[in-house]
Write a structure and sequence with these properties.
single chain, about 425 residues, alpha+beta, 5-stranded mixed β-sheet, 12 helices, 11 strands, about 35% helix, about 25% strand
């Protein structure tokens, strides 16, 4: 029943085939013959193995004719699968610019990480015995995806929740109520995330980075927490301070909030002490800007049980004379290329540390002091100074055009 004529065709087809074995016994099967475009030849694959022909002849008068019907059925099914699909569109089906039908599918990558970290498990378990009617996990996913892809207010994120293939059966009030629920479990959630990050991705805490930012509120009223302070955006509104620790890969470890009038340098020690205790980091080296460079912070860091280290930047302008002389002395600098040079030394330095009574006492620390000069950094600093001086000159001539907020950066150059 094997027909050679099927080999001459380049379209796929089904045929029954008889295959003899070494003993001369014949096996009947249905094969699909098709043209392989890559290898430019006809090939075949077995679709169904029917059985031994001698056994089938006991059941059917003509087995081949009997299974030819099955072949025709398979041919019809394959033809139906390969048939073109036609769509009909009407002019009334046009999409309008205001229609919110667009969906974001790229957040699937974020969803993968979200579930690898087990956030859905944590929130579902914590809410199991609570009386809240909303689904904290659904709201949390919306807030996380929106914050990463379309940063905006909570209300704006809620209004655009249809961007995602997620449940939307919750109200804006539910979103605001959920924030209190998340705040209640924030410390346990951070520990949970730290454990899952270490398990799934690994944590490198040989260096940890710390910085402080703040958030302003659209109000003039102050509370115990909302206080007026040095705003990063130079606004007069009350603010809240946030200190954030990140690991050596830039992945956040933990954060802490402080009243808006808290000095940046005072946020370091409470955060550092908590992070060492809660996250079991071992010995670390803290990296921070000059806002953290105080005697108390340095002494606290190096006198932990693990004798941690620090890399704090320091302003040369306010340094002692011996350090200024060392910086300005050209001997010892090593040039790396033509735009960057540096030098370093190990030197003792005296710092002021607060005693238990609040009195300042002198302590000596042995530091490695690294000094660098960068041509690009110098040009940038010069341009920033020139912009501030230009603004200061205009401020001196037209003070009525400026407010306390808009005169920031230039007022210090103007004498009253």
């Amino acid at each position: 029943m094997w027909c050679n004529k099927y080999y001459t065709k380049r379209s796929a087809c089904y045929v029954p085939q008889k295959t003899p074995n070494l003993n001369g016994r014949i096996r009947l099967s249905i094969v699909d013959t098709y043209y392989d475009k890559a290898k430019k030849c006809s090939r075949q694959k077995t679709v169904e193995s029917i059985g031994w022909l001698d056994e089938l002849e006991k059941k059917y008068d003509d087995p081949i004719a009997h299974f030819q019907k099955r072949v025709e059925q398979l041919k019809a099914e394959k033809a139906a699968r390969q048939a073109p699909i036609h769509f009909t569109f009407y002019d009334s089906d046009r999409l309008c610019l205001g229609d919110k039908l667009r969906k974001n599918f790229g957040y699937a990558a974020l969803s993968q990480i979200y579930h690898e970290l087990g956030l859905h498990t944590f929130l579902t378990n914590r809410q199991r015995r609570s009386k809240e009617q909303y689904d904290a996990n659904t709201i949390m996913k919306m807030l996380v995806y929106s914050r990463l892809l379309f940063p905006a207010s909570k209300k704006s994120s809620y209004d655009d929740r249809e961007h995602f293939f997620e449940k939307t059966d919750y109200s804006l009030d539910d979103v605001y109520r959920c924030l209190s629920f998340l705040d209640k479990h924030k410390e346990n959630l951070q520990i949970w995330l730290n454990d899952h990050i270490k398990e799934n991705y690994g944590r490198d805490t040989s260096l940890i980075y710390y910085d402080v930012t703040n958030y302003y509120f659209e109000t003039d009223e102050q509370t115990d927490f909302l206080r007026k302070g040095v705003s990063k955006e130079h606004r007069p509104n009350p603010i809240v301070q946030m200190g954030l620790f990140m690991d050596n890969q830039g992945i956040p470890i933990t954060y802490e909030l402080f009243p808006g009038n808290t000095n940046n340098c005072l946020t370091y020690r409470p955060n550092f002490g908590r992070i060492k205790k809660q996250f079991d980091l071992g010995r670390v080296i803290s990296v921070a800007d000059k806002g953290m460079t105080t005697g108390d912070n340095i002494w606290y860091t190096i006198n932990t049980p693990t004798h941690d280290g620090y890399v704090f930047s320091m302003s040369i302008r306010g340094a002692e004379k011996s350090i200024k002389d060392y910086v300005l002395e050209q001997e010892g600098y090593e040039w790396l290329g033509t735009e960057y040079k540096r030098k370093s030394r190990k030197s003792p330095r005296t710092i002021q540390v607060s005693s238990v009574s609040g009195k300042k006492i002198k302590k000596q620390v042995n530091e490695k002091q690294v000094v660098f000069w960068s041509e690009k950094y110098a040009k940038r600093a010069k341009a920033e100074r020139e912009a501030a001086l230009t603004k200061a000159r205009d401020l001196a001539k037209n003070p009525e055009n400026y407010t306390r907020a808009t005169s920031y950066g230039a007022a210090k150059y103007v004498k009253k």
